[in-house]
């Protein structure tokens, strides 16, 4: 999860988030190059002699037409690649249904019989030592690590958004509609997220906690839950 005064992304815990981080760095370097060029040209204009020779300016017109188009292509191609990767769901090992309510989440493991539960934020007064205030829940989403997980997202009342930054997941929960996303946690760990759509007075108090565990641990967890 993010630290205090952190300006960068959270550590990537899925292949999609790794790709998003790389694209962010790539786009940032393109923006840095553009800003440096504009600053250099501005310095030349301010420090050089003023001249007016726009009669034969075909070369500069060609440059300032082609260069922005090339920059857009350099940004668009990797962006479209990642966009298609995010929409792709490849033979999921597990399907999870997340339902947004005011103001908690319900989860259904559709591959299991009667494996459903509600997930509420843990009040500060009941928070165990070492856990995070406003981010911990009473029932975590437990998924197997290094496995493709499909998440079907919807809402029961108003708009919500199921978002876990370190997994590169953010999907709107819309009443009457099923949205689909997927992720693959490439390591065991606990990943925190929150509802990312303003959904009412307690919008800030419906966190998301995804716990990625080895497959054997997940099987033991699912067998111990009451039906």
Automatic annotation (TrEMBL):
<comment type="function">
    <text>Component of the cytochrome c oxidase, the last enzyme in the mitochondrial electron transport chain which drives oxidative phosphorylation. The respiratory chain contains 3 multisubunit complexes succinate dehydrogenase (complex II, CII), ubiquinol-cytochrome c oxidoreductase (cytochrome b-c1 complex, complex III, CIII) and cytochrome c oxidase (complex IV, CIV), that cooperate to transfer electrons derived from NADH and succinate to molecular oxygen, creating an electrochemical gradient over the inner membrane that drives transmembrane transport and the ATP synthase.</text>
</comment>
<dbReference type="GO" id="GO:0042773">
    <property type="term" value="P:ATP synthesis coupled electron transport"/>
</dbReference>
<dbReference type="GO" id="GO:0005743">
    <property type="term" value="C:mitochondrial inner membrane"/>
</dbReference>
<keyword id="KW-0472">Membrane</keyword>
<dbReference type="InterPro" id="IPR008972">
    <property type="entry name" value="Cupredoxin"/>
</dbReference>
<dbReference type="Pfam" id="PF02790">
    <property type="entry name" value="COX2_TM"/>
</dbReference>
<keyword id="KW-1133">Transmembrane helix</keyword>
<keyword id="KW-0813">Transport</keyword>
<keyword id="KW-0249">Electron transport</keyword>
<keyword id="KW-1278">Translocase</keyword>
<keyword id="KW-0812">Transmembrane</keyword>
<keyword id="KW-0186">Copper</keyword>
<protein>
    <recommendedName>
        <fullName>Cytochrome c oxidase subunit 2</fullName>
    </recommendedName>
</protein>
<feature type="transmembrane region" description="Helical">
    <location>
        <begin position="27"/>
        <end position="47"/>
    </location>
</feature>
<keyword id="KW-0999">Mitochondrion inner membrane</keyword>
<dbReference type="GO" id="GO:0016491">
    <property type="term" value="F:oxidoreductase activity"/>
</dbReference>
<keyword id="KW-0460">Magnesium</keyword>
<comment type="similarity">
    <text>Belongs to the cytochrome c oxidase subunit 2 family.</text>
</comment>
<feature type="domain" description="Cytochrome oxidase subunit II transmembrane region profile">
    <location>
        <begin position="1"/>
        <end position="90"/>
    </location>
</feature>
<keyword id="KW-0679">Respiratory chain</keyword>
<keyword id="KW-0479">Metal-binding</keyword>
<dbReference type="InterPro" id="IPR014222">
    <property type="entry name" value="Cyt_c_oxidase_su2"/>
</dbReference>
<feature type="transmembrane region" description="Helical">
    <location>
        <begin position="59"/>
        <end position="77"/>
    </location>
</feature>
<dbReference type="InterPro" id="IPR036257">
    <property type="entry name" value="Cyt_c_oxidase_su2_TM_sf"/>
</dbReference>
<feature type="domain" description="Cytochrome oxidase subunit II copper A binding">
    <location>
        <begin position="91"/>
        <end position="224"/>
    </location>
</feature>
<dbReference type="Pfam" id="PF00116">
    <property type="entry name" value="COX2"/>
</dbReference>
<dbReference type="InterPro" id="IPR011759">
    <property type="entry name" value="Cyt_c_oxidase_su2_TM_dom"/>
</dbReference>
<dbReference type="InterPro" id="IPR001505">
    <property type="entry name" value="Copper_CuA"/>
</dbReference>
<keyword id="KW-0496">Mitochondrion</keyword>
<dbReference type="GO" id="GO:0005507">
    <property type="term" value="F:copper ion binding"/>
</dbReference>
<dbReference type="InterPro" id="IPR045187">
    <property type="entry name" value="CcO_II"/>
</dbReference>
<dbReference type="GO" id="GO:0004129">
    <property type="term" value="F:cytochrome-c oxidase activity"/>
</dbReference>
<dbReference type="InterPro" id="IPR034210">
    <property type="entry name" value="CcO_II_C"/>
</dbReference>
<dbReference type="InterPro" id="IPR002429">
    <property type="entry name" value="CcO_II-like_C"/>
</dbReference>
